[in-house]
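Question (not urgent): is this output format expected?
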Amino acid sequence: MPVISFANAKGGAGKTTAALLLATEVAERGKTVTIFDADPQRWISNWSELPGRHPNIVVQSELSPATITEQVLEAAQERDYVIIDLEGTENLMVANAISVSDLVVVPIQGSSMDARGGAKILRLIRKLEEIVRHDIRHCVVLTRTNAAVTTRALKAVQDHLSTSGIDVLLTPIIERAAYRDMFEFGGGLATLDPRQVTNLDKARENAALFAAEVLERVQTRQARRWYDWFKKAS
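Got this back:
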């Protein structure tokens, strides 16, 4: 089943939040998910030890560059979705995970540093495409944006991505207290108490739209793979 990686060569770009939002949204739809926590900070592993983790979500953190490809492919045979939270650097672990991904999501904040980190991953994807001899679908999600204000730095990043022809999700991940509370208290947005979390309804709407865009790209990719296989077989 689909393998979705989250990667940026700069730490703090919002990879872990984006990965967990997608995983919890998918689990709430009744699908099974394995999250590979390849980030040395182990935020998702820590989250998994808090109360309220969805029963459809399994978190694995025992990984190495030599084993991650096999582990991911095995999990993809058993679970509806595999989500990989990669570390904020460019190394063999990241390259191996990207090479077996159906979609790579590159989270980028509205800053030149994040844009440079994202550009490194985009260059790595192009190199890997030459090695594995097939396209690796990828897209950018803008993260930690302000719902009310578009900064000059964010606008510059948006303009650069647009002129470079890079696929950017229409739904940015807005900076919300609810997302931080997931890591603090456990569970997903569905289990948070709206009486204790500000703008929880808006956070849920934002997460649902983000997940829908990601899943649409994965489903398109899967349909294309089946089409290519059918053409070769016929």
